[in-house]
């Protein structure tokens, strides 16, 4: 009786352990799949799951249409040019600022006073409380403007216009009066980082103009965008209405898009572990059935359990992954049927 009881308890323990291992395998693949699906669903808001290309990567076959993360320092191949001032700068974006020395109205409480200052827009003196004696010019002789580089690259990829304009940072450009066209040499002189029309730059007069330029510095940046051939562009179909991001330095994707959940790591390893747990559980369950220790049958049953659960979870998700799990389930089913027929 004690021997039979011991055998019965051993069988019960094996059955419970086997069942728990099968459930652990199914649960692990379900958790991994759900985590990956949640991550991809969130990533779709920004254009899709991001492929990490790393630093100064080169185009590879099969990357077209993917969202990618690229790190590097932009290279300006065709520099922007301000033709009116004959200024060319090795920068992705060059911005010209124009200011005029004008009267401006300053209100402090109920008091009003007027002072001359540099302003980057026309001030209509007719709207002043006391317009007499504070008349301003009626137009700017030249306007501000932005000039984008004709071609900017990172690694082996060209940056689209939207991404070029999104490159961060700004620093002042020191103009060279010697490069001025002949028609402007008599009008402008350099004062600090400006070109000014003032006869006495330290003592400007009403209507004097000063021009300055800012450039986007060449620095390491991280760019996320969609690959269109060898060009990196914005994903116009992204739900966030942007479809790209650019930040200074080597920035991880999760820092660029804080709303993304943390994706599961070592996905392939977890999938293999899930199958192995289910196979081991099935083997233990089979071993209590008349000592039927058939490894191939256990492999078929474990793979079938995990494959069916994973296939159901991936319905409506990634087609390639769904087909892969369906193949695992089908092969496991065929293996199970074959082994069961052999036993009969």
UniProtKB/TrEMBL annotation:
Alphabetical list of InterPro entries matching this protein: TMEM43_fam (IPR012430)
A Pfam family recorded for this sequence: TMEM43
High-level lineage: Bacteria, Pseudomonadati, Pseudomonadota, Gammaproteobacteria, Lysobacterales
Superkingdom as given in the UniProt entry: Bacteria
Organism per entry: Rhodanobacter glycinis
A GO-annotated cellular component: endomembrane system
PANTHER family assigned: PTHR13416, TRANSMEMBRANE PROTEIN 43
Name listed for the protein in its UniProt record: Uncharacterized protein
Membrane-spanning parts: 12-31, 272-288, 295-316, 322-340
Main location: membrane
Membrane topology: Multi-pass membrane protein
Keywords, sorted A to Z: Endoplasmic reticulum, Membrane, Transmembrane, Transmembrane helix
Subcellular location: Endomembrane system; Endoplasmic reticulum membrane
GO BP annotations listed: lipid metabolic process; nuclear membrane organization
């Amino acid at each position: 009786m004690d021997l039979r009881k011991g055998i019965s308890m051993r069988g019960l323990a094996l059955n419970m352990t086997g069942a728990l291992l099968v459930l652990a395998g199914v649960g692990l693949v379900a958790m991994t799949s759900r985590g990956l699906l949640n991550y991809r669903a969130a990533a779709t808001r920004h254009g899709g799951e991001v492929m990490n290309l790393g630093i100064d990567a080169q185009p590879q076959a099969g990357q077209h249409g993917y969202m990618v993360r690229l790190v590097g320092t932009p290279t300006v191949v065709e520099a922007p040019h301000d033709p009116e001032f004959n200024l060319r700068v090795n920068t992705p974006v060059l911005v010209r600022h124009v200011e005029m020395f004008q009267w401006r109205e300053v209100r402090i409480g109920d008091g009003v006073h007027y002072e001359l200052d540099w302003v980057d827009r026309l001030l209509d003196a007719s709207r002043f409380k006391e317009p007499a004696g504070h008349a301003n010019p009626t137009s700017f002789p030249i306007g501000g403007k932005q000039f984008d580089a004709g071609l900017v690259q990172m690694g082996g990829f060209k940056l689209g216009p939207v991404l070029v304009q999104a490159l961060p940072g700004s620093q002042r450009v020191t103009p060279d009066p010697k490069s001025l066209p002949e028609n402007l040499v008599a009008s402008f002189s350099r004062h600090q980082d400006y070109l000014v029309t003032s006869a006495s730059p330290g003592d400007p007069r009403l209507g004097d103009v000063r021009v300055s330029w800012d450039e986007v510095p060449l620095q390491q940046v991280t760019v996320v965008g969609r690959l269109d051939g060898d060009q990196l562009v914005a994903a116009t179909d992204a739900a966030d209405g942007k479809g790209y991001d650019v930040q200074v330095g080597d920035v991880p994707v999760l820092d660029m898009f804080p709303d993304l959940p943390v994706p599961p790591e070592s996905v392939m390893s977890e999938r293999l572990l899930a199958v192995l747990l289910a196979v081991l559980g099935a083997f233990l369950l089979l071993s209590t059935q008349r000592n039927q220790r058939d490894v191939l049958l256990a492999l078929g049953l474990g793979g079938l359990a995990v494959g069916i659960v994973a296939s159901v979870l991936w319905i409506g998700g990634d087609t390639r992954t769904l087909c892969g799990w369906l193949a695992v389930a089908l092969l496991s089913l065929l293996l199970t049927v074959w082994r069961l027929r052999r036993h009969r």
